[in-house]
Amino acid sequence: MSARDRHGDTVRLHVVTGKGGTGKTTVAASLALALAAGGGTVLLVEVEGRQGIARLFGTRPLPYEERPIADAPGGGRVCALAADAESALLEYLEMFYGMRRAGHVLTRFGAVDFATTIAPGMRDVLLTGKATEAVRRRVGERRRGGRNAGGGRYFYDAVVMDAPPTGRIAQFLNVNAEVAGLARVGPVHNHADKVMATLRSAQTSVHFVTVLEEMPAQETVDGIAEIRTAGLNVGSVIVNMVHPGFFDGPVLREVAEGSAETDALMRGLKAAGLESPEETARALAEEMSAHAQRASAESEIRARLDGVDRPRMELPLLGEGVGPEELHVLAEHLREQGL
């Protein structure tokens, strides 16, 4: 993955998606830390309301407010935001109509639910709109009415969005076009157009997180095709939780074909003076066979992922839990692979 796309333009919005269980939020947080290393300021945005970012960094639940959550090497900083549709609607009403107080009254009567019922894409517009506004924001700008009055450098060097899973990502990102079609004039139309202009520009890349298993890999391939069809830019494929390899290729092939040297294992165990060498040798041979079969299947999945013709990175399996320390380890792996 590179901070620049194929045309050399800087990517500033990194949308991270993946099938449930692939560690999408973990990768998004690690990516934010990696981008901030060296002195950058990065905003990490959560849009699903799960508070997964807060749990990873070991903090209290995040509010609808951009606040620092972690330091990165070299003086960098990661800020985080838990975006929700209701708060985004209140901000939207204040920015474009100056009616935040009236907006609070509307939300008490279920205005958000009503709005998202008559225009199903409105919720996603509000959430993606918050992220894209942060991408466009510049230091010193006046945010009322969505006008850029700053003209200086960007407020954030990059924005990372922990986005919905692969099965919904194309609809989530493209829904602004549908809303723009519903509202053909006025602030809603202009807002949706501005959001889509950012999402479809070279500033935005959609990264796919997967593991070396059949279903997540297939969803990744399908999701990439949908994103390309929607006219959006595909970034990298990030293979997460990769098991370590214990044997080289020739040994794995022999074991996978059922030719594990159980007798040799048993002799070695006897020479080492271990108890129950025969039983232990059989158990080791079975584990080697399972490892070889998994490695063979993973190799086939890697070959399939090669077919999407996008950069691929791999992150190791770190054990049972992931916290702030592990996030920094994963961020360093991303940087070592060319982030």
TrEMBL record:
Residues 13-179 form the ArsA/GET3 Anion-transporting ATPase-like domain. SUPFAM superfamilies: P-loop containing nucleoside triphosphate hydrolases (SSF52540). InterPro entries: ArsA/GET3_ATPase-like, ATPase_ArsA/GET3, P-loop_NTPase. Pfam families: ArsA_ATPase. This is ArsA-related P-loop ATPase. It comes from Streptomonospora algeriensis.
